[in-house]
Request: fold
Amino acid sequence: MLVAYASKTGNVARFVERLPVQRCRIWTGEERIDAPCVLVTYTTGFGQVPAEVERFVTHNRGHIRGVAASGNRNWGANFARSADVLTGRYGLPLLLKFELAGSDKDAERFLQALQQMDRRAPRLA
Ligand SMILES: Cc1cc2nc3c(=O)[nH]c(=O)nc-3n(C[C@H](O)[C@H](O)[C@H](O)COP(=O)(O)O)c2cc1C
Reply:
């Protein structure tokens, strides 16, 4: 499964780019994909979804199968809340919330979630 990710200060990029996955970076949100993907985003403002990610979702909603988000626990109840906003709004599965660039355990959990999604995804003949 393709991983589409947005990163402002590099944490999400470090998390995703060490994984053995196909990936596509969201820069402006104007990117278009044509395959199922999961979204990995950072959290901004006070628990908000970054604007470029909002744009990306608008253009590619039909392909998005799940969401993971990075944040910082210093933000308390707003920790990685961008994931809650997106999963709540679109009824998508929450795959993972992780701090900063994530730990090895986070990477393992995320890969397991991806594998489960791949198993569930309908196969094209
Ligand atoms: C202006 C600003 C607002 C932030 N707001 C939140 C927040 O509401 N919740 C949270 O968990 N993290 C928040 N963060 C922390 C980032 O989401 C976190 O550092 C993340 O790992 C950044 O990912 P990136 O390096 O890929 O951009 C904020 C960071 C900045 C700079």
Remarks:
- The pocket of flavin mononucleotide is lined by residues 7-13, 42-47, 70-72, 75, 78-81, 100 (CB under 6 Å).
- The longest strand covers residues 64-71.
- Strands lie at 2-5, 23-25, 37-41, 64-71, 94-99.
